[in-house]
Amino acid sequence: MEEQLLRKVMEEVEKELKTSKGEQQSMKQAQSCTITEFVGTAIGDTIGLVIANVDHLLHEKMNIDKKYRSIGIIGGRTGAGPHIMAVDEAVKATNTEILSIELARDTKGGAGHGNLIIVGSEDVSDARRAVEVVLQTLETMMGDVYANEAGHLEFQYTARASYAIEKAFGAPLGKSFGLICAAPAAIGVVLADAAVKSANVDVVSYASPGNGGTSYSNEVILTISGDSGAVRQAILAAREIGISLLGTLGDVPVSATTPYI
User: Fold this and answer.
1) Domain extents for the chain?
2) Edge-to-edge, what's the strand order for the sheet holding 97-105?
3) Which residues contact 84 (CB under 8 A, 6 or more apart)?
4) What is the pTM of this model?
5) What CATH number belongs to 147-255?
6) What is the pLDDT of residue 4?
7) Could you tell me if 146 and 98 are in contact, meaning their C-beta atoms sit under 8 angstroms apart?
């Protein structure tokens, strides 16, 4: 009886944590680094770090409220949307605040972005936990990123936008949110049009290479909000068209991990 109970508890714990290969790899790498600030790594050449007590001079130059003694730092060479979505989940689950979101012109020489995201907390344990949540969640958020030798497509969805999405895109809090991105940018224009035609959604933002919404990346990024079903419908319509169009430039675009939308 005790063994059955123990087995059941362990199964529930494993289910709750949703341990993936990516998470296991991150944990192994974390164990191999003895630097105090190191938390772990994840897909997209992403590194998670934490500073327990930021120097007061750096506080001032980084324009960080002094009450945030500790900060969590997430940086990736490839990805922007997945990281923002993962951080959005992290702030929902921890006592942290979004301090800054910056998108670098990167993707290791590709058409898209890298990222630098900083969260703040009064206690270092909250900052560390937020970074851990991001690293664990990235595997999922990369699921609807598709790529081939010519470019990439990215689709993101959440039923409830929180503070990271609000800060990055100006999306309304608590409402369903979707992101549609394509590179080359020409494909993104078509996907944006198809998405808003396919469902009754509100356009939150539209970014293109020269309008200030990207770091001059060869992308168009549309963000939408509205009813959950409508947002998902718009994303799925754009995804179908995007995979077909990007496929004309090379191989059939494939998911980075496992699609979740």
Assistant:
1) 2-142, 147-255
2) 38-42, 46-51, 70-76, 113-121, 97-105
3) 101, 115, 117, 164, 165, 168, 169
4) 0.82
5) 3.30.70.1710
6) 54
7) no
